[in-house]
Write a structure and sequence with these properties.
The complex is a heterodimer of chains A (176) and B (280).
Chain A: E1 4-7, H1 10-13, E2 19-38, E3 49-69, H2 74-85, E4 91-100, E5 105-113, H3 126-135, E6 137-138, E7 141-142, H4 143-156, H5 162-175
Antiparallel strand pairs in A: 1-3, 2-3, 2-4, 4-5, 6-7
Chain B: H1 2-16, H2 35-42, H3 46-59, H4 68-75, H5 96-112, E1 113-114, E2 117-128, E3 137-146, E4 149-158, H6 159-176, E5 183-190, E6 213-221, E7 226-228, H7 229-232, H8 237-249, E8 252-254, E9 266-269, E10 278-279
Parallel strand pairs in B: 4-5, 8-10
Antiparallel strand pairs in B: 1-2, 2-3, 3-4, 5-6, 6-7, 6-9, 8-9
Helix pairs in contact in B: 1-3, 6-8
Chain lengths: 176, 280
């Protein structure tokens, strides 16, 4: 069976599994924001960074990419994604309905946040987010690199996200 | 002054407790005051009274005397609006609490108003600069609500765009959704963002990079119902009606069917360099 994965953050630029096809996709009912504290990849327990997650918001729309997994690699991919995304229990695996921009509808695996988890930090002011992202650093590198990679790839895909673009400009200004 | 008050209170206390000097085996329940004691409380010596009054009058501001209007209002009967033939047709004064509440709300809204319009709520951001040539807003505002309709995320816009959005909400969106109940929230998919048009390098800056454009992906009704461009676009109904009415108020209106990039939202802009409207 065909397996699709919805990428809205690091999966946009670093899927880490064999991809057979990419398609622009919209997911309704979820909003992308820096609403998760990162204590492994982009921050530490003492100085957490911020990573993107999907927050359930009625009426919201998140635009990203649907990635079709190469035939035969489905099981390995799911195992890989679970190890990568479920490193802490703040993300929850979900099967969602995507609208591809070529009008196809597909089911996809994605990772959304559990808003009752202690790493959840939704609703933080953008300026505060910028200050954290400019300073934090984790095992995968600086938090700002995560932000810039994401905004660069969204721009390449022609998917605007005003808050992320504002954050990227602000963090660049803070870093000088 | 504090010492003065204390000594006055001590004088009261001593006068009020004539029977309390008893032995410890007595019940802790206070003994009923005798009539003499009450008299002592009610009639402190003239000297003490004077001291207390002097002390208190120094602490407290004077109470404002009632205004003539207040006095008239107090004398009115509390019952029916028309007590008789000879009662005045002049309406009652509004209770002060109601006036205060209304004025406070107005003041709050006036403080949050931008672009010289009380129904456009947000904050002034001033000049928004960008490292990319062609981007930025001269006099930007961050809008949180328009005519009582909240925005899902605060939108960085020029006042021209904010005013157009207000006109569209009042004259386009609300009439279009009239039968389903008012729209209470607009889902904003994008507002100010600095990128070349369609993000092709070398292409000119889109109106999003000048604060002249906003993308709307859904309308949320008072009932909680979400009407989204992506799922609910049929080419007719309130969505199509809203889109049609945006043309003219905005210079450019794009949406489902325009091109592959606008299937999930309406793009609305007030492009300055366009003399005619472009609605596809």
């Amino acid at each position: 069976m065909t397996m699709w994965v919805f990428g809205y953050g690091s999966l946009l630029w670093n899927p880490g599994f064999p991809v057979a096809e990419r398609a622009l996709a919209s997911l309704e009912g979820y909003a992308r924001s820096f609403c998760m504290l990162s204590i492994h990849y982009r921050g530490t327990e003492e100085a957490p960074g911020l990573v993107l997650a999907l927050d359930a918001v009625p009426g919201a729309l998140c635009r990203g990419v649907a990635l079709r997994v190469t035939d035969g690699a489905e099981d390995d991919t799911l195992a890989y994604l679970r190890e990568r995304e479920l490193i802490s229990s703040a993300y929850v695996e979900k099967q969602v309905a995507l609208h591809l921009h070529d009008d196809r509808r597909v089911e996809a695996v994605t990772y959304v946040i559990d808003p009752s988890h202690r790493q959840y930090c939704g609703g933080m002011a953008l300026e505060e987010q910028a200050q954290i992202i400019a300073a934090a650093h984790g095992q995968n590198g600086p938090n700002s690199e995560y932000l810039f990679n994401t905004t660069d790839h969204l721009a390449e895909l022609r998917l605007p996200d005003s808050d992320l673009d504002w954050l990227a400009a602000r963090v660049r200004a803070i870093l000088g | 002054m504090a010492r003065l008050l204390l000594s006055a209170l001590a004088a009261f206390a001593l006068a009020a407790m004539p029977g309390m000097a008893g032995a410890p085996e007595q019940s802790k329940r206070p003994v009923a005051r005798g009539s003499g004691a009450v008299a002592a409380v009610q009639e402190p010596t003239a000297a003490v009274q004077e001291q207390v009054v002097a002390a208190i009058s120094q602490l407290r501001p004077l109470i404002r005397p009632p205004s003539p209007q207040d006095l008239i209002a107090r004398e009115l009967p509390s019952g029916a609006a028309f007590a008789g033939m000879d009662s005045s047709l002049r309406p009652w004064l509004r209770p002060e609490s109601m006036v205060e509440l209304a004025m406070a709300q107005r003041k709050l809204r006036r403080n949050g108003a931008v672009c010289g319009d009380i129904s456009i709520q947000g904050e002034r951001e001033g000049r928004v600069r960008s490292r990319t040539r062609g981007c930025g807003i001269k006099d930007a505002v961050r809008i949180t609500s328009i005519s009582g309709v909240s925005l899902s995320q605060s939108a960085l816009l020029s006042c021209n765009a904010a005013k157009a959005l207000k006109k569209w909400v009042d004259k386009g969106v609300q009439p279009a959704f009239a039968s389903e109940g008012p729209v209470v929230k607009l889902q904003v998919a994008a507002h100010y963002t600095c990128r070349p048009r369609n993000n092709q390098s070398g292409a000119r800056i889109s109106e999003h990079g000048r604060g002249n454009a906003i993308d709307i992906s859904a309308f949320i009704l008072q009932s909680g119902k979400v009407v989204s461009v992506l799922s609910d676009w049929t080419g007719g109904g309130p969505l199509a009606d809203s889109r049609k009415k945006a043309c003219g108020i905005f210079k450019t209106v794009l949406g489902p069917g325009s091109d592959p990039y606008h299937g999930d939202h309406f793009h609305l802009d007030v492009a300055q360099d366009r003399s005619s409207t472009y609605c596809r």
